Amino acid sequence: MIELVLTSFESSAKEEVATLDNIYPILRESLLSHSRSLRLNTLRLLACKLIKSSAGEHEVVERCLQGEEVSLDVHGVRERLLRIGRVGQVVRDDDMISADLCARWLTGVFFVAYVCVVSRTDCIDCSSVES
């Protein structure tokens, strides 16, 4: 993964600018990951000042990053939900990269939340419940 990003930076160095258009296709699968650290570092890389992006794209990356940075503990749940809700507010209809980035990040976040719920319900013994 790192080699692909470095290769992209090297090819962009000839143009003297790395754009979100040429970096995002390499990193977009990482946003679907169940790994919070992978999603967080991907968003940090996409938010880097070395990556040239439109104002709308940058705003979406920043909002996703703000949501990802909130802790996953009991104290951070409310704040995390508020920030997740704000992500969709900045996605424009004509900006396909921002929409894709937002959808992939939300899917990765949902996967983590779903796994937490399912793992807790698997511990419950339903055989003792009478119907």
Any descriptors?
131 residues, mainly alpha, 6 helices, disordered C terminus
Radius of gyration: 18 Å
Count of separate structural domains:
1
State the order of secondary-structure elements, H for helix, E for strand: HEHHEHHH
Order of neighbouring strands in the sheet with most strands: 1-2
What structural class do helix, strand and pairing data support?
mainly alpha
How many alpha or pi helices?
6
Helix content: 55-70%
Q: Would you tell me the overall average pLDDT?
A: 79
How far apart the termini lie comes to 52 Å
Shape: globular
Sheet with the most strands? 2 strands, parallel
Q: Give the low-pLDDT segments.
A: 124-131
Total strand segments: 2
Proportion of strand residues: under 5%
Describe it.
The chain is mainly α. It has six helices and two strands. The chain has one domain. The chain has helices at 2-15, 20-27, 36-46, 55-69, 77-87, 96-121; strands spanning 18-19, 51-52. Helix 3 (36-46) packs antiparallel against helix 4 (55-69) and helix 4 packs antiparallel against helix 5 (77-87). The termini are far apart.
Furnish the topology, listing elements before pairings.
Elements: H1 2-15, E1 18-19, H2 20-27, H3 36-46, E2 51-52, H4 55-69, H5 77-87, H6 96-121
Parallel strand pairs: 1-2
Structure in a nutshell:
The protein is mostly helical and 131 residues long. The protein has six helices and two strands.
